[in-house]
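We store sequence, tokenised fold; for instance:
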Amino acid sequence: MSRVLKSGPILICLLLAFAGCATGPGKTGNRDRTTSSASAAPAHPAAMQLEVVPAAPRLAPPAVTLPEWSPSQARSYADTWIGLERWSRESGLGGVRQVAFGPAPAFALSATTGVFYLRIHSLVANWNGLELHLGFEPQLIDGQPYVHFLDLKKTLEPLLRGFQPSDQTNRVIVIDPGHGGQNTGTISVTDGVYEKEYTLDWALRLEALLATNGWHVILTRTNDTDISLSNRVAIAEANKANLFISLHFNSAAPSEEQAGLETYCLTPTGMPSTLTRGYDDDSGLEFPNNAFDGANLEYAVLLHRALLRVVRNDRGIRHARFLGVLRGQNRAALLIEGGYLSNPADRRPGLSREARRGGGGRFDRAAGGGAARIGAGKPTGEAASRRGHAGRTAGEPVCVRSPRRERTQPLNSGGSSDALRPVLVTGGAGFIGSHLVERLLGDGHAVVVVDDLSTGDLGNLRAVSGDSRLKVIRSKLSACCELERIVAGASSIYHLAAAVGVELVVRSPIHTLETNLHETEVLLRAAAAHRVPVLVASSSEVYGKSERPQFSEDDDLLIGPPDHIRWGYACSKLMDEFLTLAYAQEKALPAVVARLFNTVGPRQTGKHGMVLPRFIAAARNGEPLTIFGDGSQKRCFCYITDTVEALVRLQNDPA
């Protein structure tokens, strides 16, 4: 069942709220921000509470009746081209007009709802004066324009039908101010204000306008707090929102040339994206929000047109598949890039901060006039009481972390250099991981550690626990709700998380195999999606029972039989290597594998079977040293600082 909203008031309020943002908001740091219709959300919530509201009404009948294809027909038409002239006449729309000639002719298709222009071999089309982007370039076949089946179904048909959402009493909108906390977004070259403050300022104005005129508005954040993408989606789901709008601003720094408004919908299944930013764009993927492809486009047209009254440069309605905040939405959902903070001239008309503080001028007149034009009535009863909870939620807790500590560098600076992006270290609370974290912090990096502490210990990080650039998340990779966001914001990844130690391997073989195989797969998938360089730590155990005096990476490997459990560890690490190299070959993931031998040094423990700590403990206690076998075996050991040096060099220069 589709859920829709009366669109006019939304776009009016969106326009008015945006028009009031002539300059950036004040530099607020981490102070709390409150909404005009709600008490402030707690600055440090222990858990996110979710509130549920009734379901939404159904989509109104289309203004124009177009031929419908069933899903089975759609599959048969995939990757085919449809003659636009014949299709338009069979649909009762009349013929197609050629409006430009030459090597790239242009055509126009008219309906009661508007005029659609397209040009042969161009992905850029036009609908009633708005720029929008197709998935496939139109073709000229026998002198006639042809469009791809998916562009016909996902672009032309929704626009030509027209958009007539029904009236309703339950109007729930989630406004999502992008970024927050240490996830600052980009930065304005004009006043040095972060994107996170621009988006929050815009959202607070929009929330105030809509709430005053009868809409139930939920903000994903009301202060300078970072909310994970999954929780932003969860807020909309728990409140059964009809529409989700994520607010952002763009940057092309250091270039100051690009300017203009962009509105993004999730890319329909089967169609290539307008924007990929280097991420893997698998057109075969289908997400929950793809069920709302038509509504997404219709809302995008309405809101994009409204904002173009303020932002003069039209960069079009576009599609992207990597936007995690849209993928899981069970409702119409958009992401709006409201202009380029890297361009000093790309500014919104409206009041200055000083005039706005004085309470007069254009913003107040526009807000008052917009409120009168909305005409939606005041909320009463339950709706009125719910308005007091905008921006925070009640109910069952969802996956959310406690607010992170302040850092001197942002987690993701939205296009800044790698020096400002953190390094992700999985297993960073372990013996090797903790020494690597110390080295990276000493080199000036911010570091994010993900470790379930199954073999690691937070005490290993005691020496750097007060460093504001360090963030530690206690979780398995497969259970970390923030993993995608963390990986997307990372400059590089060191994957050290593993089940290690002979004693642990023999005692818990299932845990060993699942940890070493599944957790690596989860990480590699995320790293490949965002093309983040990854170093995977393997083990000398993969050489098996080789009797060579020296080992080489291209040696044949001799692994023992499967009824000897200890060889499961060697096989799991070898499979990690195969999987890493497969992602490098098939997904172009920048990756390197490092086979570590016996690393020794401070903080190594003997409780999982490590030999030198056990020797030392036995010697200190006056106990005999236990040696397995006949004592003729040879082992090589590498001191921890040498291992860390090798890892850093391999990551920085994998060739």
